[in-house]
Write a structure and sequence with these properties.
Shape of chain A: elongated
Number of strands of chain A: 3
Helix content of chain A: 40-55%
Largest sheet of chain A: 3 strands, mixed
Number of strands of chain B: 25
Structural class of chain B: alpha+beta
Pfam family, one (chain A): Skp1
Strand content of chain B: 25-35%
Keywords (chain B): Repeat, Ubl conjugation pathway, WD repeat
Largest sheet of chain B: 5 strands, mixed
Distance between the termini of chain A: 63 Å
Shape of chain B: globular
Pathway (chain A): Protein modification; protein ubiquitination
Oligomer: heterodimer
Structural class of chain A: mainly alpha
Strand order of the largest sheet of chain A: 2-1-3
Protein name (chain B): F-box domain-containing protein
Strand content of chain A: 5-15%
Family (chain A): Belongs to the SKP1 family.
């Protein structure tokens, strides 16, 4: 097994299978284009901290055998479906989830970004207005009935 | 730039250079409120919203100002509008909406467009309707078609009628097709077209052409400048009428009469240059619209031809012999067996054929293999308890009328709309009763 060494912002080094690392398009590009010597060099990821990188690597490792998804197909078939493992994975503080999503966006791991977005979308779906204000921490503003709601209430 | 790529599900990868080092709002004006206090760049926030259903998305616009801006993004609503289950049924309706939802600066207001479509869906699902009654026929109405401005109906009183209000006292004619103006409140028809000597069994209004078929064995076609329609009379001769409704009756004329069927013309469809008709004489005929000559006769059904539809590559017909036949290049390519009684109505789309029958079921067929995909009946899925007379389907629903005096609207189990409204289990079909009695 060829391995890659990833160094987080805090200096921790994570050793992972290179095939796993390559599921991130950014890392794939870095490994293939810049002729990094995988045996000796570490790949510095200077803007991601260990507490964020760790779960991302866990996620990548678990999903390493997944077929790369076709986004449009998934959206059409099961827009709200999330597997049990992913549900466990998502049991975390929203703050951390945002950081993970941002990092996944940077690392270009589309499936993970989609998962996070889907999870937040699901939260929005089931929450009342008050709950939304609380969960997403914004100031309460007067509610205007939207076009759709006006129709709903007809 | 990044936003659009996410929403369009397109070349997402190109933008991985959008580093998280970049501040989420670096491009925003100084008074911008952070949409989610989310530390998420707007592109990701928009991506989150792209996973929402329309109602939740609508709710998000009422949560706070920043969310309102984000959730009103036309790209989100455009995407919803483009989904097959939210399409409008006809190209004409789509075109009209494109015009009515244009903003002052020439852009399309996709959110408004979607709200309109949503309202329409709700009315269908809740059975909201206004009932208006139109008068004029003296006997049973056998066929009817409408568009935005008119209703055309054919009757056994053997006339086709188009009436205006000040002609309210117009005489009752022996065999009629009637045309009403849908935009006025007048219950009277603006025009009556006479010519058939038998019951008008079928008609097709397309642009400025009206074609009608009748039990006098003829088809008649008419053309009109203003009202545009043509009329064809079916069993023996087919007639084409030329019709202009500029406040007078004088310019209504039958353009062509097509003669050839030996029995009642039961069904027909017209396009730019041809008419395809099906008759009780067991045959289908293809006619030249201009000359009125029969180009082709399709023989094969062992019973009366009751319904048909054609496109550029094929003709599909249903018959009293309980079968549906697909005709290609003048020959019967596939025969679909499965109904236990006469096939009274059918419609096909790009991959399926939907048919209704005297056996009280609606069946879905694969065009490719000819296999029956599924059946809708009254025992398993709240289908009709009486003979099914007519049906029409589009991207998300099937509307059918039967002798049990009901019109039923069935959500199409093949559409994504169905999934969203009826949950995860596809085993049950949801049926909405619009009208319980006629």
């Amino acid at each position: 097994m060829v391995i890659a060494r990833l160094q987080s912002k805090d200096g921790d080094i994570f050793i992972i299978d290179v095939d796993v690392a390559k599921r991130s398009n950014t890392l794939k590009l870095a490994i293939e284009m810049s002729k990094i010597d995988l045996d000796d060099d570490v790949i510095p990821i200077e803007n991601i901290t260990s507490n964020v990188l760790k779960p991302i690597i866990d996620w990548l490792t678990y999903h390493k055998d997944d077929e790369p998804s076709e986004p449009i197909k998934i959206l059409k078939a099961k827009p709200y479906y999330i597997s049990n493992w992913d549900k466990e994975f998502l049991k975390m503080d929203l703050k951390l989830l945002y950081e993970i999503m941002n990092a996944a966006h940077f690392l270009d791991i589309k499936d993970l970004v989609d998962l996070g977005c889907k999870h937040i979308a699901n939260i929005i779906k089931i929450s009342s207005h008050e709950e939304l204000t609380e969960i997403f921490e914004f100031e309460a503003t007067p509610i205007l009935l939207t076009e759709l709601e006006q129709i709903e209430n007809m | 730039m990044g936003e659009s790529s996410v929403v369009e599900c397109g070349s997402w990868q190109q933008h991985h250079t959008v580093s998280l080092l970049a501040e989420p709002h670096q491009d925003c004006p100084s008074n911008c409120q952070d949409p989610f206090t989310w530390k998420l760049p707007p592109s990701l926030a928009l991506h989150v919203f792209s996973f929402l259903d329309p109602v939740s998305l609508g709710r998000c616009t009422a949560v706070c100002k920043a969310w309102r801006m984000l959730a009103s993004d036309p790209r989100l609503w455009r995407r919803l509008c483009l989904r097959p289950d939210w399409q409008l049924a006809s190209p004409a309706a789509r075109h009209r909406q494109m015009i009515s939802c244009r903003t002052d600066d020439g852009l399309m207001d996709w959110k408004k467009a979607f709200a309109d479509r949503y309202r329409l869906h709700r009315n269908w699902l809740r059975g909201n309707c206004n009932v208006r009654t139109f008068h004029g026929h003296t006997q049973g109405v056998f066929c009817v078609q409408f568009d935005d401005t008119r209703i055309v109906s054919g009757s056994s009183d053997k006339t086709i009628k188009v009436r205006r209000r000040h002609y309210a006292a117009a005489q009752v004619l022996p065999v009629s097709v009637q045309v009403w103006n849908i935009r006025t409140n007048s219950p009277w028809s603006v025009m009556t077209l006479v010519g058939h000597s038998g019951t008008v069994r079928c008609l097709h209004l397309q642009g400025n052409r009206l074609v009608s078929g009748s039990s006098d064995c003829t088809i008649k076609a008419m053309l009109s400048m203003q009202f545009d329609f043509a009329l064809i009379n079916v069993p023996e001769p087919h007639l084409v009428w030329d019709l202009s409704t500029q406040h007078t009756w004088s310019s209504i004329a039958c353009k062509v009469t097509m003669v050839g069927h030996s029995h009642t013309v039961r069904c027909l469809q017209v396009d730019e240059d041809k008419v395809v008709s099906g008759s009780y004489d067991h045959t289908l005929k293809v006619w030249d619209l201009r000359t009125g000559l029969c180009r082709e006769t399709l023989v094969g059904h062992e019973g009366a031809v009751l319904c048909l539809q054609f496109d550029t590559t094929k003709i599909v017909s249903g018959s009293g012999d309980k079968t549906i036949k697909v005709w290609k290049e003048g020959r019967c390519a596939v025969t679909l067996n499965g109904h236990e009684d006469a096939v009274t109505c059918l419609q096909f789309d790009s991959c399926r054929i939907i048919s209704g029958s005297l056996d009280r079921t609606i069946k879905f067929w694969s065009q490719e293999t000819g296999a029956c995909l599924s059946t809708l009946d009254w025992m398993k899925s709240e289908g009709h308890t009486g003979v099914i007379r007519c049906l029409q389907a589009d991207g998300w629903r099937i509307v059918s009328g039967g002798d049990d005096k009901t019109l039923k609207v069935t959500l199409d189990p093949g559409s994504t709309f169905y999934w969203q409204h009826c949950g995860q289990e596809p085993t049950e079909m949801k049926v909405y009763h619009i009208i319980n009695t006629w």
